[in-house]
Amino acid sequence: MPNPRSAALTAVFLVMATLSSHTADAAASGRADTLESLRREASKARDQLEKATGQMKSRQKDLAASQLKLRGTLKDLAGAEAELNRIREPLARLANSSYQQSGAAGSMSIFGGGDPGQALRSTADVTLLARSQQALVDRADELQDRRKRLASTAQDLQSRNAVEQTRLQQEVDGLKNKSAELTKQLNAMLDKLAVSRQRRLELGCDKSLVADARKFPNGLIPAKYLCALPQKGGHKLRADAALAFYKLNAAYKRRFGRDMCVRDAYRSLSEQHAVYASRPGFAAVPGTSNHGKGQALDLCGGVQNSGSLQFNWMEAHAGTYGWIHPAWAYSSPFEPWHWEYGTENE
């Protein structure tokens, strides 16, 4: 006959186990929701920073154009000043000559005594001098007005540019502060959640960037469409390849106790040219390498040696994570270190 006490204890245990399971599921669900919320916030922050950066660059272009206009204005102003300085001496000489004409008292001397012919000649001389002087005076007045306008324009441009430079610097500082604050907040949330390094990398690598990355020519993918690898050296891959590599790297680390050794990953077009120049006929023609698509790796740490423990492990396990050692790399040329993500399926 069953023991009622044992049956009761069993029932209590089952209820507690069920509740514990529901609690764990709820906690896991809450954790996933928090991580997804974190991803959304990071993506939102990225979009905001990209928009603000675009506006800042537009302001920089406007400021550069205004500075160019200011330089042209100052150059014109210097030219007006130089021309005004050149005509000051002729003006002074003409003025002095008009006062030193012998027997002439201006145009009124024709009505005075003395030789009428001399008076007429004197009057003609004075008239000619007056006309020449008037032309110089008019030009001097024109230059003075131009100088004033240019000086006013230059002063206005300098003031506006100074204000714009201050505003631009404030925007730059604002972007820096915002980025730093967001980084601090996101890291704090990650620390609070005790998120692993791999999860951090995954959260920072948005798979939606893959479609945009494919639009760019080989070797010309902008950095923002690539994801960083945990290894030192600043290596990057296309988002889908990077996400698969994080998992491959974690499995490798569980087996060998260390991260995979990466010698090369995404390779820009200029880098492809440099490699081809050093290994013509062996390296891929620049613009055709899968390194330029962000989906190829050159590995070290033992993997580069065919038949090594590390190479054999890669052959056995890399395919699980979408990575392959392409057929050509076994013979033409023989490159045991070269691995690619999904290329034979694309």
TrEMBL record:
Signal sequence range: 1-26
Parts forming coiled coils: 133-192
Keyword Signal included in the entry's annotation: yes
SUPFAM superfamilies attached to this UniProt entry: Hedgehog/DD-peptidase (SSF55166)
Key words of the record: Carboxypeptidase, Coiled coil, Hydrolase, Protease, Signal
UniProt-listed CDD domains: Peptidase_M15
Location of the region described as Disordered in the Swiss-Prot/TrEMBL record: 38-61
Family annotation (InterPro entries): DD-CPase-like, VanY-like_core_dom, Zn_M74/Hedgehog-like
UniProt KW Protease keyword: yes
Basic and acidic residues composition bias: residue spans: 38-50
Superkingdom of origin: Bacteria
Protein name: D-alanyl-D-alanine carboxypeptidase family protein
All copies of domain D-alanyl-D-alanine carboxypeptidase-like core, residue ranges: 235-341
A Pfam family: VanY
Listed GO MF terms: carboxypeptidase activity
